[in-house]
Design a protein that fits this description.
alpha+beta; seven-stranded mixed β-sheet; binds glycyl-adenosine-5'-phosphate
């Protein structure tokens, strides 16, 4: 599947639109249309139900070291600025970027790569903003153009070494930028904080500055004590939250994959330090299984454990759940979710003050006067186990997923093309979205075969039978084959058709989107039949 086909379908059928499109759009912001909003709600609801409300806390779940409890939270987007100082986002949550003086392009310093090209005695570094095979082709094209070479004298061009990151280049004057025609147009890398800023109250000065949260996780940490004190939860337990996060990404791209406003689905799972490794492994596998259960099975999904040198020293494990999105080069994967063992870093930072992530054992980061750089809340965020009479700071396992990335992956995986006979029996191309029924925006469509002979009346009765329980669509316009195709294209798993036989024996046909199989059921059994299949 080419990404362009999916993007076109999403716009045509109302899944996703560019934000503020009539004004030319706003980079990194996306709106979910009538079908997109249902799809994303289904993703969020599946997550909340599977992780929180349907969790059985009385039984040990498969793969879990013990029983555990799950609870939820919904906190504000704007929080006390000290939250971000102690969490580290204020100091550390930045990227380096380079600007191009010629093209006005802005690039993430660590995402540009290139190779050294030589013609006669002249040697330049050709930088590009793509990866994989694309990068090889693009550097070749750019170097040929720069040196004014035609295909017949391409042998004059020599490559000195493999593709390397721009970060390894000392002298940017020798670099040909990704969209530049002349050398040395890239600026030195500059720091760029990804948090959006705003102000509370009427006065706009440093003291009223606040931030839009760049993750939902911190809201959970700062409410840890509230949750423990107001409920009867006992460790081990998890707090889940779904909500908007904001990052002023330098290079938003790849449809909704890297947006500036997006939604996260995060769990902070609190446990005893000595069992934390077992819980980490449990959550890593549990979260991977969630995606496979909802249809992301196969080679395009993988679980990748971070190498020890990728881990911060306070984390004893991090794994990414990754998907081979079609916009990535062959063999590349994009992150859907990170599952991290965070030790006691976050709770301690909010208690004692921002910890220095490079200290070992962890210590509060000091300023030039030897004082804590950012003071913590001073509140006791330890936990007292009334059975063992122990007091300790819980360790945390954090499965952190993106609702928009998951929705995008489900869309990419669902996109299918095949050939099926049309109304006249001629094989024609069909595009359909093979969503898991739980995720499908519309669960069933009801069609009267023709708009007469009492068929619309029966169809409307069935529609009303189903409607209180699920999202159902009624359609009486056009040839029935065309109506099926319209539903296939938006991923409706079942179509119910009322025909001449219905009026004689009270049965209707039900058609399966994927197998195209059709069978007859009694009119009054429609709800039970669809419900049985949706929950199968
Ligand atoms: N609390 C940990 C945390 O926020 P992260 O890896 O920065 O970790 C977690 O983000 C998830 O949030 C990612 O795996 C991704 O699904 C989603 N996410 C992060 N940045 C995003 C962006 N700019 N656009 C869309 N989704 C994003």
């Amino acid at each position: 599947m080419e990404m362009d086909q999916l993007v076109a379908l999403c716009k045509r059928r109302g899944f996703l639109f560019q934000s503020s499109e009539i004004y030319g759009g706003l980079q990194g912001f996306w709106d979910y249309g009538p079908l997109g909003v249902e799809l994303k709600r289904n993703v969020r609801e599946a997550w909340w139900r599977d992780m929180v409300t349907a969790h059985d806390e009385l039984d040990v779940q498969p793969g879990a070291p013990a029983t555990y409890e799950m609870t939820g939270l919904d906190c504000t987007i704007i929080m006390h600025p000290q939250v971000w100082k102690c969490s580290g986002h204020y100091d550390l949550f930045h990227d380096y970027m380079v600007d191009c003086r010629e093209s006005n392009g802005r690039y993430r310093y660590d995402q540009l790569q290139g190779r050294w090209a030589e013609v006669d005695d002249k040697r330049i570094f050709v930088a590009v903003n793509v990866s994989g095979d694309e990068a090889l082709k693009e550097t070749q094209r750019k170097a040929m153009k720069y040196f004014n070479l035609r295909a017949k004298n391409a042998e004059k061009l020599h490559w000195d070494g493999p593709m390397v990151d721009l970060t390894t280049i000392e002298n940017l004057a020798e670099v040909l930028g990704p969209d530049a025609k002349t050398l040395g147009t890239l600026t030195e890398p500059r720091e760029f904080n990804l948090m959006f800023e705003s102000h509370t109250g009427a006065v706009r000065d440093e003291s009223s500055k606040v931030f839009l949260r760049p993750e939902t996780a911190q809201g959970i940490f700062v409410n840890f004590k509230n949750v423990v004190d107001s409920t009867r939860v006992k460790i081990p337990f998890g707090i889940a939250q779904i909500g908007k996060s904001f990052r002023n990404e330098i290079t938003p791209r790849n449809f909704t994959f890297r947006s500036r406003e997006f939604e996260q689905m995060e769990i902070e799972f609190f446990c005893k330090p000595e069992t934390s490794q077992e819980w980490y492994k449990y959550w890593r596998d549990r979260r991977f299984k969630w995606y496979t259960d909802l249809g992301l099975a196969g080679e395009r999904l993988r679980l990748r454990d971070h190498d020890p040198d990728e881990l911060s020293h306070y984390s004893t494990g991090t794994a990414d759940i990754e998907y081979a999105f079609p916009f990535l080069a062959e063999g590349e994967f994009g992150e859907l979710e990170g599952v991290a063992h965070r030790g006691d870093f976050d709770l301690r930072s909010h208690m004692e003050g921002k910890l220095d992530p490079n200290s070992c054992p962890l210590e509060v980061e000091k300023d030039e006067h030897g004082q804590p750089r950012y003071r913590g809340s001073g509140k006791d965020l330890s936990y007292f186990d009334d059975q063992t009479k122990e007091r300790f700071i819980p360790h945390v396992i954090e499965p952190s997923a993106g609702a928009d990335r998951a929705t995008l992956a489900f869309l990419c995986e669902a996109y299918q093309e095949d050939e099926v006979p049309n109304d006249k029996g001629k094989p024609t191309k069909r595009v359909y979205l093979k969503f898991h029924p739980r995720l499908a925006p519309i669960k069933a469509a009801v069609f009267p075969l023709v708009k007469k002979d009492g068929m619309p009346e029966v169809a409307k009765e069935i529609y009303r039978q189903l409607k209180p329980h699920m999202n159902v669509f009624y359609d009486e316009k056009g040839a029935v084959g065309r109506r099926y195709r319209r539903q296939d294209e938006i991923g409706t798993p079942y179509c119910i058709t009322i025909d001449g036989q219905t009026l004689q024996d009270g049965t209707v046909t039900i058609r399966d989107r994927d197998t195209l199989e059709q069978w007859r059921i009694k009119t009054e059994d429609c709800l039970a039949e669809v419900q049985k299949r949706l929950n199968a």
